[in-house]
Every structure is written in C-alpha cells, then in structure tokens.
Amino acid sequence: MRYALERFITDIKDAIAATGKVPVDLIEITTPKPNIPADRTFVAFKAAKALRIDPAKLAAELAATIAPPPDSLIGEVTATGAFLNFSLHPQRLAVAVLNEIETAGEAYGTVADGAGRTVVIDYSSPNIAKRMHVGHIRSTIIGQALVHIFRALGYRVIGDNHLGDWGTQFGIILAAMQRYGRPQSEGEAAMAELEALYARYNAEMNNDSALEEEARRWSLALERGDPEARSLWQWCVDLSLRAAQRNYDRLGIRFDYAYGESFYEAMLPEVIEEALRSEAAFRDIDGAVVAELDKLPKFIIQRNDGGTVYMTRDIATIKFRLQTFNPSHIIYVVDARQELHFRQLFAIVRAMGYARDVELVHVPFGVITTSDGQPLSTKKGNMVYLEALLDDAVARARALVDAKSPDLSPEERATIAEAVGIGAVIYNDLYQDPRRNITLDWDRMLSIEGNSAAYLQYSHARCRSILRRAADEGVALAEADLTLLTHPSEQRLIRHLARLPEALREAGARYAPFVIADWCYTTAREFGIFFEQCPVLRAETPTLRAARLRLVAATANALRNGLALLGIRAPERM
C-alpha cells in the first residue's frame, strides 16, 4: 500500500516535473520547519544553482505554473522566497486517510521496506540460576518493541534470547547443590534458594580452599560433559526458563530462539584458530590469544590456561547467525556499560572476514533508579525483582480501575488492571531515549492525564466507548461524508494519523521505539483536543456526526496499532 503522505510527495514531484522547469533528479521534497504553514517544501537553492537562475524567481515561477490534477492530494501551492510550499487538500486528505485506515485495519502503518531481508535481534539474555530483576527488563522491553517495529517494516525477524548459561559460576552452583541439597520449591522461590546457596557457598569458599577446589572440579566436569554435572546444570536451565516464562508471558515477550552461550561451545576451538589464521588476533608472550584492533584496548579471545571468555562465545554467535539466518542486520539490545565490548566484538568479526555487508548494531540503554535517583543494587538491598515489580504495577493499576470503573465485573477489572499495570511498566521504558536512566515513579506511570500508557489506553477506551454509544443509538456510519472534516482540530488529527508509516520508518532507522511512543502520545493529545472542540454524538447534522464517528474509529484503530508496536494492550473499557 502507498499511503496518503507518500502519494502526496509523488504528486508534488510529478507536478514540479510537469512544468518542465526542473529536471527530475533535482527535485527533493522536505518537511518544513514547524513555524511554516505547509505540509511539504521544495527548497529551490540546489536546483536554481544548477539551472543558473535566482532561487526565489524559480520558486515563484513554479508556484504560478503548477496546476495539480483534480484528484491530487495537493491543495495550496505558495512561494516564500526560495521555498515552494505545498499544503494538503483537506477534503481529499480526510477521505484518503480514513479509508486506508479502515481498509488496512490491524495492518495500517505497516510497510514492505524490509521484504526479503532478515534481522536478528539479541535481547533479554538473563543469567541462568538467577531471578530476573529490573536490570533485565530494559533489554527485554526495548528488544521486543524493536521486534514488532522491524516486523512491521516487512523484515523477517529472528528474536534470540542469548541466555547466560555457561561460565565458571556454574562450578559454584553445582558444588553448592551437592553440599546443601537441591531446592525443592518451584518458580521464583526456587530461584531465590539457588541464589542463597550460591552466596552461602561463595562466602564459605573464601575461607576454605577445599571448597574452592571442589567448585573448580565441578566447573571442569561440566565443560568436559560429565553426565552428573550436565544433569544438574540442565535442571538449573529448565528451572530458570520456567520461572522467566511467567514474566515473559505477562510482558507479551515471544522469542524465536533461546540459544544459550553453551550452544556455541563446540564452535570455540575453530573460532580461535580462525582469529589467529586471519591475523585478527595473536598469541602473546604468556600464551593467551589477544586482539588489538582499530586503536581499541587490547582484549582476550582465549586465556593462557586455554579457557574461553564472553568474547569468544560472542564471535561464535555472530558466525552462527550469519551462516544460519543470512541477516542484513544483527542488533544487540544491551546496556550502555558494554559499549566497548561491542566495539571490540564488531572490529574482530570484521577483521576475521565476517559481516562485511551486515549492519552490526548495539542499542545501548541506561539503568533504572529509584525515585530519588539511587541505582538499584543487590548489594545495596534495594533490588526490585521483575515478578514483584509486575505484581506491584498490576496491584496499583487495580486500585485505579476499581476507583474509576466500579460498575465493571471483578473479572473485567482484573483483566484491565493487568493490561494497565504491565502497560505502565513497558511505556515507562519506551517513551524516552533508551540511553537515559529511568525511574520508577508510580504516580506518573499510572496517571491518565500525562504522558503515560494509562493516558493512551484511556484515550483508546474513550474512542471505543463513543462508538458503542453510537451503535446503541443506531447511528449509520455509511451516511458519512468525510469531506466535511475540515475543522482545524479534525485536520490536525487526520494529518497526524497519516504519519504512522513515517514514524515507523523513523523508529526503525534510529532503533528508537520512543518515536512510536511519541506518535501515540501526540495522537491521544490531538484526539483530546478534537473531542473538546468538535461534538461527535451531538454534531450539528447526522452526516457530520457519522463523519466524526468514522474519525473516532480510525483514531482507535491507529492508536491500537501504535500501542501494539510497543507491546502494550489497548483495553476496550477503562
């Protein structure tokens, strides 16, 4: 589908080309500055220079010559100095945008830019045998939003949960289970027990070299494939995945694969040999394999005792993804503290001859802090675990829903509270630049009047409520004459609804879900202004009422689609 704004730009280029005054390759259309009363602009400087004519004169001549065809989306054409400004035709715009939203439905806003290409997105990546906490939530939420965005852009998307299921810490975990016994509970309770066992053994190990040796023995046994070690390790993996899945289900997280670091174990010797053979790495005087590339600090590929590190497994992971999925992009959603690691990783992979034509992208993000700006930390005793965070969010939302909608059934209020509470957590992360640190401010997060998920969800629910009342009153939407939608607030809303495909493309190009969040917030705000200034159910005429109801329906549809890109549900009632 070619959307209205795309057709508008094509109409402008065709109209300028039809004058015969400007070659097609010199026609560039831009978005004007906010203070310019126009929708698109042709800046004449470049063309005028090539044509050796005064730019203001060229713009004036074009304005006087252009004659858009009757079905064009071009309305007014004016010249201001060297700027040739184009405004949308209000009636034709209303018809075009509302019809394409109604026709496309849930697909409105999607494009096919990425058709035939694959994107791998690496996100969430919790550590096995540890509870998920707020430190994991940002990668999980941002990553899932990027999955939705790139799928809507037409890409085949591979979401991969790169689990931290390997490393020396498992020697301590296995030794602790052998010494103190395996947890008998399930879910988060069992995970908490595992963490306590790890901490207890680690503390005792500091004063007992025999315990340290026992942990080292279990670590070696695991790496060598000892059946008992592998069995205990697999139990930890399965337990952790079951516990994490409850959180993922509530957040609407869906992975295509969950390959842990252990999956790449067999590839590591070959990766090290390739790094040496390609001279991307070298063996230093102590016997370790290291790399020093692109003026980056020296880093290790293999320890001098033969052990591997995160970098080794990450190189193997990229190699596997290239060979298995043939992606155009590999995107890592990992916190900003790992920026140097990814610069080094991308440098050595390219030095080894891989991913020459593939976009390797690190999407960094900041930390979550308390309302007074304190970092959340297990050592400080203020860590918030993910299951408890989601439970708290839903409980707070339930109190809000109970107060606002006591007439709804308890079951419906519970469903709405889950959507609103989880939506608050997701939107609190996504509405701002991911590099910024974010805070847990429940009053703001659950407000139905500010820039929050609850405000957006309430706007959608209000749209649906209006449409239900119209249906109860027997209003026939077929009577609508969309050309009547010329009020300034109607036109601003329609223009903004038309921008969803543009916002989607911008969000993908910048790896920035906050672009979609901003589009959703502006949609809700513009709808609120329209609702205040333009009576809907009590419009002056039945035809205008039907037209405004069609606009309300289109707003609900588009806003639901925008929220879905963020992974937020849009309740029918609130």
TrEMBL record:
Its main location: cytoplasm. Residues 456-574 form the DALR anticodon binding domain. One of its GO terms (biological process) is arginyl-tRNA aminoacylation. It comes from the Bacteria. A motif ('HIGH' region) lies at residues 126-136. It is an enzyme of class 6 (ligase). GO terms for molecular function: arginine-tRNA ligase activity; ATP binding. Its EC number is 6.1.1.19. The keyword tRNA-binding does not apply. InterPro entries: aa-tRNA-synth_I_CS, Arg-tRNA-ligase, Arg-tRNA-synth_N, Arg-tRNA-synth_N_sf, ArgRS_core, DALR_anticod-bd, Rossmann-like_a/b/a_fold, tRNAsynth_Ia_anticodon-bd. Keywords: Aminoacyl-tRNA synthetase, ATP-binding, Cytoplasm, Ligase, Nucleotide-binding, Protein biosynthesis. It catalyses: tRNA(Arg) + L-arginine + ATP = L-arginyl-tRNA(Arg) + AMP + diphosphate. Monomer. Belongs to the class-I aminoacyl-tRNA synthetase family. This is Arginine--tRNA ligase.
